[in-house]
Design a protein that fits this description.
about 325 residues, alpha/beta, Rossmann fold, 2 domains, 8-stranded mixed beta sheet, 4-stranded antiparallel beta sheet, about 25% strand, globular, binds iron/sulfur cluster
C-alpha cells in the first residue's frame, strides 16, 4: 500500500504566560491508502493537537510547529488558511465527537447538505438534493426523503452521527478523520457507528484515522494502532500484534483499563494511578516512569528512544514486557 498521509518529526509548542508547553514532541507516523490507523491516548497525550496541527488547523502566533505533515506528498504545514479550507472536505474530512458542532441546529438537514454540495462540488440544486438522499441511504438512514426535511434536534444522537458521517464523505475525501466518534453515544449505537465507518472505508477506498482515548474502541476496526503518551508515540504496531504482543507497560495498563462486559472478578477494570508529566516542565528519563511498576533508576534518568523490534512493532521502553529482569 502506498503512503498517503505522513507526519515526520512533528513538534508542537504553545507559548503560555508560564512558558513553553510541549504538546507534541517529535511524532513520526503514516497512514497508507485504504488503511485505518487508530491513535490512542489519555487526555493530554497530544492526540488531538497532533492531528489538528498536522492537518493545518492549529496555527497562530502562540503555536510553534516544526517537522512535516504531507498528504500525497503535499506539505500541509505551509498551506495558507484559504488552502486549508479547500483541502477540508475534499481531501480530508472529519467526524466530530459531537455532531451538533458540525450541524446547524436551525437549518433543515437537506438544506445543509445541498449548500455544502453546491459550494464544494459546484452541483446544481436538484442534483445536490438527489446526492444528499443517496448519501443518507449510504449511511443506512431510513426514509432519507423525509429526513432531509427535519432539523438536527429532531434526530437521536446516533442518527445525527450518521448524518455527520454522510456529510463528511460527501466530497469523497481521501482521508476520513474520526475524533472520538462514539464517545457521546451509548454502547449499542457505538458499535453500529464503528461498523458503518469500517464499511464505508472499504466501499469508498478511503484511509481512516480514529482518534480515541479508548483502546477497546479501535480493537476491531483498525489495521494499526499508535499509542501516544505525553506527546510521544510510545508503541505502534499492527492491531493484532499490539494486542497479542504488547511491549509497553503503558499499553498494558491501557488494556487493563478497558471495561469488560462479562464483569467477572478476574477481569476487573484497572485504573492507571498517577498523572502524565507536566507538559511545561523539563522531564528527564522515561515520561511514564512515575507511574510504571517496572521502573528502574535507568528509567528515571535516561529517555528511551522509539525502537523497532524488527517486525515493524515500535516501542519506547528499556524493558519491554516479557523481557524485564
Ligand atoms: S522505560 Fe522503564 S519506566 Fe519507561 S515504560 Fe519502560 S520499564 Fe516503564
Amino acid at each position: 500500500m502506498t503512503e498517503l498521509f505522513a507526519v515526520e518529526d512533528l513538534r508542537v509548542q504553545f507559548s503560555t504566560p508560564r512558558g513553553q508547553l510541549n504538546a507534541v514532541r517529535g511524532i513520526t507516523l503514516s497512514v497508507r491508502a485504504g488503511e485505518c490507523l487508530g491513535i490512542v491516548g489519555e487526555s493530554g497525550s497530544g492526540k488531538t493537537v497532533l492531528w489538528r496541527s498536522a492537518m493545518g488547523l492549529l496555527r497562530g502566533r502562540k503555536v510553534t510547529r516544526t517537522g512535516s505533515a504531507r498528504l500525497e506528498g503535499r506539505e500541509l504545514l505551509t498551506l495558507t488558511p484559504k488552502e486549508v479550507r479547500q483541502y477540508w472536505g475534499t481531501h480530508i474530512a472529519m467526524v466530530f465527537q459531537d455532531p451538533m458542532t458540525a450541524l446547524n441546529p436551525v437549518r433543515r438537514i437537506g438544506s445543509q447538505f445541498v449548500e455544502a454540495l453546491i459550494k464544494r462540488k459546484g452541483m446544481h440544486k436538484d442534483a445536490a438534493m438527489a446526492r444528499t438522499i443517496e448519501l443518507l441511504r449510504l449511511v443506512r438512514m431510513a426514509e432519507p426523503e423525509l429526513l432531509v426535511r427535519k432539523y438536527p434536534a429532531q434526530l437521536s444522537g446516533g442518527m445525527r452521527q450518521r448524518v455527520m458521517i454522510a456529510m463528511a464523505i460527501a466530497c469523497e475525501p481521501k482521508v476520513l478523520l474520526a475524533d472520538e466518534p462514539t464517545t457521546a453515544l451509548d454502547v449499542t449505537v457505538q458499535a453500529q457507528v464503528l461498523e458503518l465507518l469500517s464499511d464505508l472505508r472499504e466501499k469508498l477506498g478511503m484511509a481512516m484515522v480514529i482518534v480515541t482515548h479508548d483502546l477497546g474502541i479501535v480493537a476491531g476496526h483498525t489495521d494499526r494502532i499508535a499509542v501516544l503518551y505525553a506527546g510521544e508515540v510510545v508503541e505502534m504496531a499492527s492491531t493484532l500484534d499490539l494486542f497479542a504482543n504488547t511491549k509497553m507497560p503503558y499499553t498494558e495498563a491501557l488494556l487493563k483499563s478497558i471495561p469488560r462486559l462479562d464483569g467477572t472478578s478476574t477481569d476487573m477494570m484497572e485504573v492507571i494511578d498517577g498523572a502524565p508529566p507536566d507538559p511545561m516542565a523539563e522531564t528527564v528519563g522515561c515520561f511514564f516512569a512515575p507511574r510504571c511498576k517496572y521502573a528502574t533508576d535507568k528509567c528515571r534518568h535516561e529517555h528511551p528512544e522509539l525502537v523497532d523490534d524488527g517486525t515493524g512493532h515500535f516501542y519506547r521502553c528499556f524493558y519491554p514486557l516479557g523481557k524485564q529482569s
